[in-house]
Every structure is written in structure tokens, then in C-alpha cells.
């Protein structure tokens, strides 16, 4: 029998999303649990529910613009396409998708002054005929949606999917989006090399000790502490913490949805309604469009209820259209920000080198 989250687990997870995992003593006081009990609970969540605790970099403030790439492979060339998408070292996340053909989805963080060269890189993949089509979308930073007790019944210790109430909530929702979902006019570079290394290590493990990062950098711990407090936190280089786990039953899927709206107002209402729902994992806004994308996590038996709710939203004029694909999470790959390309407080983007890597890779595969 599959283990289920209990009420205490939910309280812990919600507090981790609000306060982060770096101060267990403070976290225990906030939710009224002894420190050792809290540590044991978190250890159990890691082993039984694959809990991940990671930092989310606010890429806009380190000079990077988010790019979403949908690539459909030429028949027989999926493995080549997968490798080709990694030939550009600024990739952050890649996952295969169940689609009409073998395809994959990628997220990149591209230096703001090199967006046109990245577009040329993707066009080169098409010219090499390993992709039938590639769609590129520029986006805001991606807002994490951490778990809360909304839709969780503490009495029965079960999830309750209140789809009709969700539709009513969207109708009455506000329209003030968080800063992470606003289109910024620029991507100012506010970080130095030490900041980038700290962010990279926190992306790998949000619980890592600053003294361990100091050893890695071969600098005094006070130096790392200063950068964490006065740069990472005060300058807003970190958006928050990602508290990710499998909180539903085993028969669940992860879907990547794109939602299109008639206007900015309905888009904002919909986006805000997802911020405290257990079905959302992250959300971002597509530049220049009244559209958002989101990773949706659902028990399979709830999928049709979700799409029926979307149909009702379309009839009410609160949603224009949507499309989706199932992600193959068993084969996903992710990496941290590309710290190795950051020198003298700026990003090094060697376009010709990326193209050379791509062409050599394709030749070797063919």
C-alpha cells in the first residue's frame, strides 16, 4: 500500500515553501515541532516521496533571458536531436514529450545580448535536418508553485479536487501578478563570480552549508556569508525555494500545458488561481502574448475532470484555448546555471563554438 502524506507532512511542506529549508530551528518553531522530529520527518519525505529542496535563481537579475524550446525530431533522429539541444551549454532542463512524433521540451537561460545568436543556433538544427520543426518562445522567469494545504482535507488526510469551486475562484480572482511573471524591459547583471557559484550550489541542494561553499571557493566563510546576505537575498538574485515531491498517488502524470487567453486580465486571474493549488508545479508567461505555460501534476483519474473544467472556462470566456503534452519524467535531465561561462562578471557566449559543437555532434551521430 502506498504511503500517504499526513497533516503534519503538509504543514512541514507548506512551511518549507514559505521559510525555506536552511534554518531548521526557526522552521520548527514556526510549526511547533521539535528540531529532531522535523529533521526525521524531512528525511522520511525524501526517502518515501522523493522530496527535492532546491533554490530557484531569478535569472532576470543575472543577465539571462528564459527561452522555451519545443523540438519535434525527424523520424529516427530523436537521440541526435536530444544531444544537439545540449550542444549549447546554456540549457537548464530537457524532457522528452509524448506527442504526435518523438519530441522534447527544453528550457534555456540565454545571455540577454545573445538572443539572436541562440535563434540562429536553433535554425541550424533544422537545417541539419534532425528536427522536423522547432518552436522558440521567450518567457518571463518561471514562478515556482510550492505545496500548500489548499484542497487537502486534514480530517480524512486526503486530497479533494474542488473543480467547480476553482472555476468560481477564477471568476472572482484579482489581477496583480507577482514580479516573476511580469515582462521586464531589461535583464540587469547584478551578480559577481562568487554569487554565481553560491547560486549554482544552492540550485543543487538548498540545504548546503555556506562554509562548504567557502571551501569550494577557497575564501573565508565570512565572505560567502556576506555575499549570500547582501547579494543573493538583498539584490533578489534568488526567487525562492523549490519544494518538489510526488504528493499524489503512484498513477499520476506530469503534463506541460500552454494556456491562451483573450486578454491580460483573464490570463492574470487564471495564473493567480494556480498559485496555491496542488496540481501546479511552476508557471511562466510567454513574452508578447496573453498566454502562460505551466507544468501540471495530476492523478490520471483526475485528468478528464481538469480538462472538463478547462472547457467550462472556455465557454465562460475565461480561457481562449489550450494544448498539452505528457512529459516523460523518467528521462528528464537538468543542470544548474552555466557558471563555467561566467568570467569577469559577464557571460561568455561563443556562438561559433556552439555551432561547431553542434555540427561535429551531428556528423558523429550520422
Secondary structural class: alpha+beta
**Percent range for β-strand residues:** 25-35%
Low-confidence stretches: none
Span from first to last CA? 47 Å
Number of domains: 3
Q: H/E element string?
A: HHHEEHEEHEEEEHHHHEEHEEHEEEEH
Shape: globular
Instruction: List the total number of helices.
Output: 12
* CATH architecture type of the largest domain: 2-Layer Sandwich
Radius of gyration: 21 Å
Helix content: 25-40%
Number of strands: 16
Mean pLDDT: 94
CATH topology of the largest domain: Alpha-Beta Plaits
> Largest beta sheet, briefly?
10 strands, antiparallel
* CATH class identity of the largest domain: Alpha Beta
Structure, explained:
The structure is a single chain. This protein has three domains: 1-49, Orthogonal Bundle (Arc Repressor Mutant, subunit A); 56-191 and 235-366, Alpha-Beta Plaits (2-Layer Sandwich), CATH 3.30.70; 192-234, Arc Repressor Mutant, subunit A, CATH 1.10.10. It has twelve helices and 16 strands. The protein has helices at residues 7-19, 24-31, 35-49, 78-85, 115-127, 163-171, 193-204, 210-217, 221-233, 264-274, 303-315, 351-365, and strands spanning 52-57, 64-73, 91-98, 103-111, 131-139, 143-144, 152-153, 158-159, 238-244, 252-260, 280-285, 291-299, 321-327, 333-334, 342-343, 346-347. Strands 2, 3, 4, 5, 6, 10, 11, 12, 13 and 14 form a ten-stranded antiparallel β-sheet that branches.
Amino acid at each position: 500500500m502506498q504511503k500517504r502524506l499526513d497533516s503534519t507532512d503538509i504543514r512541514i511542506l507548506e512551511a518549507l515553501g514559505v521559510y525555506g529549508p536552511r534554518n531548521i530551528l526557526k522552521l520548527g518553531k514556526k510549526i511547533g515541532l521539535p528540531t529532531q522530529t522535523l529533521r526525521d520527518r524531512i528525511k522520511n519525505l525524501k526517502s518515501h516521496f522523493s522530496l527535492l529542496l532546491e533554490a530557484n535563481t531569478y535569472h532576470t537579475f543575472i543577465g539571462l533571458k528564459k527561452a522555451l524550446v519545443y523540438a519535434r525530431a525527424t523520424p529516427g533522429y530523436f537521440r541526435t536531436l536530444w544531444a544537439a539541444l545540449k550542444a549549447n551549454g546554456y540549457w537548464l532542463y530537457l524532457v522528452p514529450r509524448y506527442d504526435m512524433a518523438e519530441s522534447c521540451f527544453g528550457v534555456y537561460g540565454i545571455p540577454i545580448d545573445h538572443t539572436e545568436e541562440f535563434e540562429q543556433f536553433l535554425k541550424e538544427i533544422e537545417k541539419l535536418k534532425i528536427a522536423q520543426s522547432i518552436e522558440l518562445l521567450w518567457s518571463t522567469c518561471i514562478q515556482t508553485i510550492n505545496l500548500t494545504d489548499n484542497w487537502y482535507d486534514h480530517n480524512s488526510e486526503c486530497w479533494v479536487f474542488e473543480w467547480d469551486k476553482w472555476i468560481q475562484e477564477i471568476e472572482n480572482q484579482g489581477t496583480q501578478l507577482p514580479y516573476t511573471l511580469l515582462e521586464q524591459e531589461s535583464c540587469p547583471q547584478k551578480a559577481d563570480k562568487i554569487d554565481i557559484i553560491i547560486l549554482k550550489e544552492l540550485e543543487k541542494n538548498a540545504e548546503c552549508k555556506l562554509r562548504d561553499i567557502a571551501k569550494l571557493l577557497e575564501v573565508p566563510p565570512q565572505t560567502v556569508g556576506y555575499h549570500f546576505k547582501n547579494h543573493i537575498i538583498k539584490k533578489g538574485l534568488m526567487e525562492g525555494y523549490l519544494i518538489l515531491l510526488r504528493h499524489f498517488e503512484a498513477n499520476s502524470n506530469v503534463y506541460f500545458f500552454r494556456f491562451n487567453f483573450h486578454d491580460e486580465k483573464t490570463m492574470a486571474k487564471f495564473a493567480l488561481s494556480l498559485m496555491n493549488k496542488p496540481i501546479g508545479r511552476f508557471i511562466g508567461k510567454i513574452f508578447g502574448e496573453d498566454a502562460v505555460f505551466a507544468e501540471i501534476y495530476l492523478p490520471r483519474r483526475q485528468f478528464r475532470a481538469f480538462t472538463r473544467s478547462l472547457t467550462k472556462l472556455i465557454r465562460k470566456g475565461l480561457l481562449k484555448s489550450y494544448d498539452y503534452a505528457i512529459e516523460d519524467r523518467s528521462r528528464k535531465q537538468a543542470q544548474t546555471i552555466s557558471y563555467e561561462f561566467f568570467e569577469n562578471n559577464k557571460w561568455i557566449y561563443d556562438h561559433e563554438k556552439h555551432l561547431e559543437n553542434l555540427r561535429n555532434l551531428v556528423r558523429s551521430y550520422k
